[in-house]
Amino acid sequence: ADQEKLSSVVAEARGWESVNDYSASRFGDIMTFVTEILGGSYEEWEPREDSQLAELIGIMIIRMSAFRDSHVQQGRLYDVHGWLYKMSGISFSLTLDLKSMPPPHTTGVYVTPNQGFHTMEDVEEGFDRLSKAKATKSFGFLTMTSYTFLATVLMTQNQKLLPIDELVRFNENLQVLEELNVEGESWAVLQSYQTLEKILYLMRVFMHQRPEYLESSTGTVDTLLALFPPSKRPIFVYPSSTTAEPGSETFVDEFSDE
């Protein structure tokens, strides 16, 4: 029965496109359900290896970012990331659209209120964080830091702060992932693959806005695709370019628990 309920909850969560599609109370109900599944034992089913459960947790991590910071939100973050670390890496499955044209919006994977980079100093601070992440030699940490950096790039209104050489510099940081071991921290494998898939998603959005970024990124995309297990390697379709307005989709709705 729980497996069937999980299927219907995943179908529901796939439909969450904006904060109007779900409430804090519904989110809480689903959190309770996931906690019960992960705490239960089943004869014929191992939830920690279930790709639908992994997908649901991945969606919840994205959508949870739309809630305002509060004690309730801190508790949510703690719980949901706790589930992520309980999941087996083999539960990962590809869930994002890396093919359609034009690429879907940033908000498909990133809804955190973020104003982007405002100054050259901001950009340098971002690179400083990437350097620190590289120094840890942690695949999971560098992936998460790279994802946040790229999302911030997309939210930046003044794209003159990000000339192509800075974007190439970012790609060089991504290339370092091939020297690290994705299986190095067993608890972080699912998160690493999910975040890697989100990076590829955001790269497509950005290539669509900045065609010169596409031209500089094919080697990096190949490197990232090779990090996935062969049976779970995404098909990445390069977007055709457009004169999209950078920053045209930087607005993110926030809602609180009140």
- Percentage of residues assigned to helices: 40-55%
How many helical stretches? 10
Instruction: Give the overall shape.
Output: globular
Query: Poorly predicted ranges (pLDDT <50, ≥5 residues)?
Result: 243-258
Specify Rg, calculated over alpha carbons. Answer: 18 Å
User: Taking all residues together, what is the mean pLDDT?
Assistant: 89
Structural class assignment: mainly alpha
Count of individual beta strands: 0
Domain unit count:
2
Distance between the termini: 33 Å
Main sheet specs? none
Please trace the helix and strand order, writing H or E for each element.
HHHHHHHHHH
Beta-strand percent range: under 5%
Q: Could you write a compact summary of the structure shown?
A:
The chain is an all-alpha fold. It has helices at residues 2-14, 24-39, 51-64, 71-86, 120-135, 139-154, 164-175, 189-209, 211-215, 218-226. It has two domains: 2-91; 106-232, no CATH class.
If you had to describe this structure to a student in words, what would you say it looks like?
The chain has 2 domains: 2-91; 106-232, no CATH class. The chain is 53% helix and 0% strand. The chain contains 10 helices and no strands. The chain has helices at 2-14, 24-39, 51-64, 71-86, 120-135, 139-154, 164-175, 189-209, 211-215, 218-226. Helix 1 crosses helix 3 (51-64), helix 2 packs parallel to helix 4 and helix 6 (139-154) packs parallel to helix 8. It is globular. The relative contact order is 0.14. Residues 243-258 have low confidence and may be disordered.
Q: Which helices and strands, and how do they pair?
A:
Blueprint: H1 2-14, H2 24-39, H3 51-64, H4 71-86, H5 120-135, H6 139-154, H7 164-175, H8 189-209, H9 211-215, H10 218-226
Helix pairs in contact: 1-3, 2-4, 3-4, 5-6, 6-8
